[in-house]
Amino acid sequence: MRSMRLSLKSRRALLGLAFISPWLIGFIFLFATPLLQSVRFSLSNLSVAPNGYVLEFVGLKNVKDALLVDAAFNRILVDSVWAMLLNVPMILFFSLFTAALLNQQFKGRTMARAVFFLPVILASSAVAAAESAGLINLMGDASAVEAAADGGASFNVVSIVRMLADVGLPMAYVDYIVEAIMRIYDIISSSGVQILIFLAALQSVPGSMYEVAKIEGATAYESFWKITFPMVSPLILTNVIYTIIDSFAGSPVTRAIYQTAFKTQNFGLSSAMSWLYTLVIGLVLLIVGWVLSRRVHYN
Amino acid sequence: MAASGTDRMVVVPKSDHRMQRVRNKTSDLLYSIFRYALVIGISFIILYPLFLKLSVAFKDKQDIYNPTIYMIPRHFTLDNIRIAAQVMDYMPLLANTLLFVAMTTLLTAASCALAGYGFARFTFPGSSLLFILVILTILVPTSTLMVPMYLHFRSFDFLGIIRLFTGRDGINLLNTYWPSMITAATAGGLKAGLFIYIFRQFFKGMPKEIEEAALIDGAGGFRTFARIMLPNAISPLITVILFSFVWQYNDTFYSALFMSESPLISLKVASLPAQTNQLVPQLMGFGSNSGMKVDPNYVAMIVDTGILLAIAPLIILYLFVQRYFVESIERSGIVG
């Protein structure tokens, strides 16, 4: 009966809160609280007691340890960021290209789409781990695997590098292209979702625009750069952000943080590492978002 | 050439016009050959590891060292599959995993649909700020929350209720389904922020008149949602259910964190090589302490077969739903 006296507006507001309440409860207790706790942990020395834990405030010691004392963390962090910076443009280019390809009419398109999205289903770190272990088994030990991989690859690389250098490309570009070719499987398997997003964007471009362009005499090349590209550019930002987050999700840094916490039981150091890592990601996202959003075309 | 498009039709003599058409046709043909080469090439790169595993799964031991065999084994056998299934304890493992994944997927879809609808259609104090916080949950890496979450579920006590009634320090929920169930039901599980976003975009795009009509007809908010909005939201539902299912099935991060000892396929696969090395001698009739080492190539074969067994349910699922998968994403409003 009381609800009858509330105005329609506040009744709607309450209803809305009711709809989001599961999320809100989860957010407060399973996101916001752990987030604040992890800040506290990163500034403390945490020791696990039989029921609960004991904190001992140590200030920025953990951050210092992560950056200056820990042997590998610095390097892993820089490597991950670097790999991400290299991967993002490749994944983006490949997924836009593939989406444009899959959006055209040709026989067997449904099948091609089914195959191209298979990696989304099969991308699993567990399978990857088992596979590399299986290979190690096969070859004896890890160094043998690496040697074999290098041996197998170097033959191709030399010929590719020669070819590209002969064409007259600067060595930096050659490096980048060769890198891309070597990692083609990784790139393909980590661009499934991005292809889907671009494909959805391409489908929403009205066909009449292309017709007009065709009547006006635009070539396919011109209509790609003047119509397709500007129309999907907002999704480029979305995809860049998704790719960055995705590439961090299974990175060696995450593994290092996990091991610091659960192998060496150094929870404070692990929290400090994860916060350093979060800050780096946040910084990268801010810079990329700022640069791209100035260039994106919104209609 | 582009600028003269209109002139061409009027001025250019007929023979040139025919030449132009022939040239267009040739370039179309060349382009379509190029396209097929590309599509087939990329498909091959994707499918090759899968074919390789299929080939290995049916290959007999005596074919391992035969260099003349490329893909199709000469001696077919089901032994590898049998042994891999034995090593993994496959059927109970699969049933357990499917039950677990299905439950979390349904909870995630339900809670995210509710939240997405709430954010799309209602304004309440702080609603836009709260939605920014949803985006924040996508952006913060899960490893930041890892340690507090772990400790939280190690002695789980919601608002101190358990301590109040029993005086104990909360219950240890690790190695039960509860941590994942609780996070899924409160829209905080794997990539839940993304799912809320998908639902919100979709519900925003639906016409308001439908709900107003329902409201006039006397349906309450939840009834409108369950009877009218949800049945229309099939495409985002399929998208979310599929992604959630697949990601949960493949997830090792949360499962290793909360349920490291539970029988789940993602965890079992990661330890498959060690397991195989240990168990295969026993299955072949040698004692566990006999110090027998099995041929590493044979172990690799069993591991590959085990991986195939692990991903087979996903592939079968995908074969049935891939059509809806692609179509629903195109219509589910990820693009917004």
From TrEMBL, chain A:
Membrane topology: Multi-pass membrane protein
Chain ranges of the ABC transmembrane type-1 domain: 77-296
One GO biological process term: transmembrane transport
Protein name: Sugar ABC transporter permease
Source organism: Paenibacillus sp. AN1007
CDD domains: TM_PBP2
TM region positions: 12-36, 81-102, 114-136, 180-202, 223-245, 272-292
UniProt keyword Plastid present: no
TrEMBL record, chain B:
Top-level taxon in the UniProt lineage: Bacteria
Family recorded in the similarity comment: Belongs to the binding-protein-dependent transport system permease family.
InterPro entries: MetI-like, MetI-like_sf
GO CC term, one of those recorded: plasma membrane
Record-annotated ABC transmembrane type-1 domain positions: 94-320
Spans traversing the lipid bilayer: 29-51, 98-117, 129-151, 177-199, 229-249, 298-321
Location(s), subcellular: Cell membrane
GO biological process: transmembrane transport
PROSITE patterns, sorted: ABC_TM1
UniProt keywords, alphabetically: Cell membrane, Membrane, Transmembrane, Transmembrane helix, Transport
Protein name (Swiss-Prot/TrEMBL): Carbohydrate ABC transporter permease
PANTHER family: ABC TRANSPORTER PERMEASE PROTEIN MG189-RELATED-RELATED, SN-GLYCEROL-3-PHOSPHATE TRANSPORT SYSTEM PERMEASE PROTEIN UGPE
Topological category with respect to the lipid bilayer: Multi-pass membrane protein
Principal localisation: membrane
